[in-house]
TrEMBL record:
Gene Ontology MF, one: helicase activity
Highest taxon in the source lineage: Bacteria
Organism lineage string: Bacteria, Bacillati, Actinomycetota, Actinomycetes, Propionibacteriales
Record domain Helicase XPB/Ssl2 N-terminal: where: 441-561
Source species: Ammonicoccus fulvus
Protein name: Helicase-associated domain-containing protein
Pfam families documented for this protein: Helicase_C_3
InterPro entries tied to this protein: XPB/Ssl2_N (IPR032830)
Keywords linked to the UniProt accession: ATP-binding, Helicase, Hydrolase, Nucleotide-binding
Length: 704
């Protein structure tokens, strides 16, 4: 085989499908033919992506191939010190190497470039290498300072700059003199010395810096699965419940992002206090909400999107599955926001490697396994060595496991069954164990309401008008007070509507104190009405009217008397409402006809466009490439056959012609070609045949 294109022609449709699946970037856009595919497969950027998907053993073999002169074969096993056939097959299947002939291996250009000028930290093979005994003898009695030099060069780069590197040393004085005199360093030019490859390998005791043996898997946990899953489901529901509360708070508070991006520490603390959670958990929930498109962080405020309303329409288990998958595949690394200088939703929490690291850390997890952070770090670093570019594996694992615990993927330091939702579907028996929505409340005489489970959205939305959250839990405790009940009146509810709703949703009836509260607010509500004139205020109590006029802000808002019960202002109605509420009044919005207006529901901004992973039809693309390759091979065969027929016709030679008959049956004819014209050949033998050249599959001289 001359090149990678020739090697790819030997790939079956199944092997091409596997290649395009493993290296999805090669299929976007679909390659035009195998030559195009080969060019992409050898591109350095694509090769780098493919190398990032390799485990430590395969990556070590790939670097050894890049370090050896081409073509190579058994030398790879000699260099790495283990049977490399399986890894070499993997590299060939990924189109990172190809075999020009049986038993030999060549690397694509991008592979060698990916490991820099010194793959494996080794110099080029020596023209006259030292044997092991000579190296051991040269190292004997070597001064400590000289040994420090070779130790520094041992793992690469193997070169260093010195003066007069090519000098002849007869009486060594300096450490470099000792190394040059013993052949442990060689001059590459007048200014550069190099540690010979064989010396570095002898000092290392092998090619790789770390063991290529796969670490042992995680041990089985000791707790029963049902207990672990129950605790995990509790954590999962708690997270979803807190997330809903946080987004409801954002609807009311709408904090502005910092100029540099992210949420201010003060706003984070306020949110955390409102939902009864730690700032770290609230910051993580905000990051998850952003990944799921439930909030937007651009513009003047951080607010929920219309996707939040659609999310609320889902069941508890569906809500959890939606956000946990977006967290798993998202590009952000929330742990960066938990650092001293970090900010939730800040611009620095999107490093580009987040999804890859999460996948590597969580890949070894399966239901029932014990979560051993130290062993998990070893497994992740072995399975995906590329994660070490992101940081220490131990720190990365700690960050992921913290968030996995909050989400319910783990509990009691053991993997729960919920982890199956990351790559597949949540089992039905697990989904059924999530708390079911309820629409009933326990109303108490102390003006509180207790929800014994998660409220469905219509009930929760209505209760949010009537009462404030006092504490959160599986359901929550809500408190009625004058301001909260007035809020319902402002939304257009009447006293009768409120009492009917409470009767319908209470499992204990309406306590007398709550009836009195509703009746009191009904008598007071609407005695102050606000409209646009730019604004006007009608007050039927002269004392209250004078209180408004005397407020320091009245002059700033342009408030003035327009009648015995009417004020007008050069301010928007919303500003007047805020002033009146500050004075302890309960104003109601009024329409042009004098009727009360309901407070409109908040308008949600649209969720940001989400980048969906492109669905690659690897099977279809592979089939097209194979068809085009076969057509190309058929064209080459036809071209060769035409050359042979032309020569035989000129020299009147007898040939054997393989062809496909009109009925599709493979056939053979023997004779002398006498005429080549109009895409046909006339063959004269025992019988005369006129064959279309397109049906000719092979031509060879007839046996004598």
């Amino acid at each position: 085989m001359r090149d990678l294109t020739d090697a790819l022609r030997e790939f079956s449709a199944e092997r091409l499908t596997a290649l395009l699946t493993a290296r999805a970037d090669l299929a976007v856009p679909p390659p035009s033919d195998l030559a195009d595919l080969a060019t992409r497969a050898a591109a350095p950027q694509s090769v780098r992506r493919a190398l990032d998907s390799l485990n430590r053993r395969d990556l070590t073999v790939a670097e050894a191939v890049a370090a050896l002169p081409e073509p190579t074969s058994q030398q790879v096993a000699d260099l790495v010190g283990f049977d490399a056939r399986e890894s070499l097959d993997r590299l060939t299947d990924l189109a990172l190497t190809w075999a020009p002939a049986p038993g030999s291996i060549r690397a694509v250009d991008g592979l060698s470039r990916s490991f820099g000028p010194h793959p494996g930290g080794l110099a080029e093979p020596s023209a006259y290498p030292l044997d092991p005994d000579a190296i051991d003898h040269a190292l004997t009695g070597l001064p400590d300072a000289a040994m420090a030099v070779v130790t520094k060069l041992m793992w690469g780069p193997p070169t260093g700059a010195v003066r007069n590197a090519d000098r002849v040393v007869t009486d060594p004085v300096t450490p470099i003199d000792h190394l040059l005199a013993r052949g442990l360093l060689r001059a590459r030019d007048a200014h550069t010395v190099e540690l010979p490859r064989e010396v570095a390998l002898r000092l290392r005791g092998g090619f790789a810096a770390a063991s290529v043996a796969e670490p042992s898997p995680l041990p089985a946990g000791r707790r029963p699965a049902r207990i672990v899953d129950s605790a995990a489901i509790g954590s999962a529901y708690e997270f979803v419940h807190q997330l809903e509360g946080i987004l409801d708070e954002l609807t009311r508070r709408t904090p502005a992002p910092l100029r540099t991006g992210g949420l201010a520490a003060r706003d984070l603390t306020t949110l955390a206090r409102a939902v009864g959670a730690s700032p770290e958990r609230v910051g993580f929930a905000l990051e998850v909400a952003r990944a799921a498109g439930l909030i937007v962080t651009t513009g003047p405020a951080i607010v929920p999107t219309d996707a939040f309303e659609r999310w609320l329409a889902l069941g508890p288990d569906e809500r959890w599955v939606r956000v946990v998958r977006d967290w798993y595949a998202g590009p952000r690394w929330p742990a960066l926001a938990r650092t001293e200088s970090g900010r939730p939703l800040g611009p620095d929490a999107e490093p580009g490697w987040a999804a890859m690291v999460r996948a590597a850390v969580l890949a070894p997890l399966a239901p029932g396994l014990s979560v051993d952070a130290e062993r998990l770090a070893e497994l992740a670093a072995w399975q995906r060595p590329a994660i070490t570019r992101a940081g220490k594996p131990e720190d990365l694992v700690e960050a992921v496991l913290t968030e996995a615990g909050w989400l319910g993927l783990t509990a009691f330091e053991q993997v729960s069954s919920l982890v199956q939702a990351l790559e597949g579907t949540l089992p039905d028996d697990i989904a059924a164990r999530f708390p079911a929505f309820i629409d009933r409340l326990v109303l108490q005489a102390d003006l509180t309401a207790i929800a014994t489970g998660p409220l469905d959205r219509p009930t929760a939305a209505a209760l949010a008008l009537l009462a404030d959250v006092e504490s959160r839990g599986g359901g929550g405790v809500f408190r009625f007070h004058a301001g909260s009940v007035a809020r319902a009146f402002e939304a257009g509810w009447s006293a009768q509507t409120i009492e009917e709703w409470l009767e319908r949703h209470s499992s204990t009836g309406i306590p007398q104190p709550l009836r009195f509260l509703v009746a009191d607010i009904a008598r007071l509500h609407g005695t102050v009405r606000v409209g646009a004139a730019r604004s006007y205020v009608r007050i039927d109590d002269p004392a209250r009217l004078e209180t408004v006029l005397a407020h320091p802000a009245a002059e700033e808002l342009g408030v003035r008397r327009a009648g015995p019960e009417t004020l007008v202002a050069d301010a928007d109605p919303a500003d007047m409402v805020a002033l009146l509420r500050e004075l302890g009044l309960t104003p109601a919005a009024e329409g042009a006809a004098g009727d009360l207006l309901a407070t409109p529901a908040p308008r949600r901004p649209p969720a940001p466009g989400r980048t969906r992973p492109r669905v690659i039809d690897a099977v279809g693309i592979a089939a097209i490439l194979r068809t085009r390759a076969e057509a190309h091979e058929s064209a080459l065969a036809t071209e060769d056959a035409l050359t042979t027929l032309t020569r035989a016709c000129a020299e009147a030679q007898t040939v054997e012609v393989d062809y496909v008959a009109a009925d599709g049956v493979a056939s053979r004819g023997v004779g002398v070609p006498t005429e080549l014209a109009a895409g046909t050949v006339r063959l004269v033998g025992d019988d005369m045949l006129v064959l279309p050249l397109a049906r000719v599959t092979a031509v060879r001289p007839a046996a004598t």
